[in-house]
Write a sequence for this structure.
């Protein structure tokens, strides 16, 4: 599933990149095509205009400098038809006398033959018609020629430029863009592969945790089920005996069923969606009284284990939240401390700077540094040798952390030889 998710992510990224590159290439090509077409038109205009002004001799008063002229016949706007791009376009220029009987070749960079010139000339005059504009430009599909026609004192000047200039330029641009786009596409592919791994990593971690959670839960449920099935087999094998004589097997089944129910309830609590958190009860809870009550309950447990239980609970400490869940938080921390303590457990509740701080310390074995980061993981036990009856199933601290988060707080843990192991729950004051 994760491999498929990574592939889908890469596919989406590369589809977007490909679309962006295609659009960008199309826009650049179109803009360059328009510019090249304009360059060719300017070239044929320049070819006729420059020569037309040269024929006027002293009457050429509108020539303002090299390559610039004041074209009063085109709206009175000064134009610069002599651009670097236009000068790169090869042109052929011909002068046709006023009676149209002869044509003079002024420039034939395109090397047009007589037949090509005559055929093109017919199309030019047919396209020009009776237009009175000083210079008429256009494009001949047959032969892919651009033309410009201008009337001068010496006759009609006709200039031709080949459209192959545009075709060759666009082809070279397309090859360049294709190479650039290919490099960019490959670069984005490599980036998207690493990015897909990075993006999917949290999902992969959550998936692995879920798989581990299911495996651990199945293992924890399998143990009581196996015990119950063994008890039932014994009961069935002694069906003629009284219930009283089989009481211990029935009680064992009852105990295992309760453990299974507690485990299922804990898993349901951890699996509750976030919107259920918003619906929980929010009351002002006397956290001092709640902690005191839990300390009294665990005094007997500590006494049986030979552990001293010390308390320092500040009075009048209130927390806004769910009393039942806060009770679960306090009892989990105390139960955990009593299980792992050697001889001493201390409970301290204080309030400062708008924060409630519950610290529970035991002098048991130090938690290794590599285990500190996992003590709040589900089904995690620091002491792997403990049996279920002693160490639980490993959901208590995970639930305590969840309760703290639901109330806007947090739980931290420290462990050292000198100070022991301390769990600190911090909650906002009511």
């Amino acid at each position: 599933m994760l491999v498929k998710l990574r592939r889908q992510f890469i596919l989406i990224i590369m589809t977007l990149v490909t679309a962006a590159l295609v659009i960008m290439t199309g826009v650049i090509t179109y803009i360059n095509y328009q510019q090249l077409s304009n360059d060719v038109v300017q070239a044929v205009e320049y070819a006729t205009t420059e020569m037309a002004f040269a024929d006027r001799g002293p009457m050429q008063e509108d020539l303002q400098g090299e390559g610039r002229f004041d074209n009063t016949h085109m709206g009175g706007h000064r134009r610069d038809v002599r651009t670097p791009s236009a000068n790169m376009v090869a042109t052929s220029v011909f002068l046709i006398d006023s009676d149209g009987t002869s044509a003079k070749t002024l420039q034939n960079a395109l090397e047009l033959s007589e037949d090509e010139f005559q055929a093109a000339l017919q199309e030019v005059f047919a396209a020009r018609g009776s237009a009175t504009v000083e210079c008429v430009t256009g494009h001949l599909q047959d032969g892919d020629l651009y033309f410009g026609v201008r009337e001068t004192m010496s006759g009609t000047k006709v200039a031709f430029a080949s459209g192959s200039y545009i075709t060759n330029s666009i082809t070279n641009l397309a090859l360049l863009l294709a190479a650039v786009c290919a490099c960019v596409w490959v670069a984005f592919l490599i980036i998207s592969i690493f990015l897909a791994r990075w993006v999917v990593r949290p999902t992969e971690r959550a998936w692995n945790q879920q798989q581990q959670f299911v495996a651990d839960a199945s293992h924890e449920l399998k143990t009581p089920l196996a015990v119950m099935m063994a008890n039932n087999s014994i009961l069935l094998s002694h069906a003629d005996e009284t219930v009283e004589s089989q009481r211990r097997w029935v009680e064992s089944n009852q105990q295992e069923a309760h453990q299974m129910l507690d485990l299922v309830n804990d898993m349901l609590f951890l699996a509750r969606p976030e919107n259920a958190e918003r619906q929980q009860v929010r009351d002002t809870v006397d956290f001092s009284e709640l902690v005191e009550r839990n300390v009294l309950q665990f005094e007997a447990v500590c006494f049986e284990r030979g552990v001293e239980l010390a308390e320092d609970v500040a009075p009048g400490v209130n927390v806004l939240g769910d009393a039942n869940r806060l009770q679960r938080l306090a009892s989990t921390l105390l139960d955990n401390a009593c299980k792992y303590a050697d001889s001493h457990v201390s409970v301290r509740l204080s309030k400062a700077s708008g924060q409630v701080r519950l610290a529970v310390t035991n002098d048991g074995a130090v938690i290794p540094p590599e285990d500190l980061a996992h003590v709040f993981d589900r089904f995690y036990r620091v002491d792997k040798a403990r049996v279920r009856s002693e160490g639980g199933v490993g959901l208590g601290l995970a639930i305590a952390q969840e309760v703290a988060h639901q109330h806007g707080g947090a739980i931290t843990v420290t462990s050292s030889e000198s100070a022991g192991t301390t769990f600190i729950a911090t909650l906002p004051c009511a």
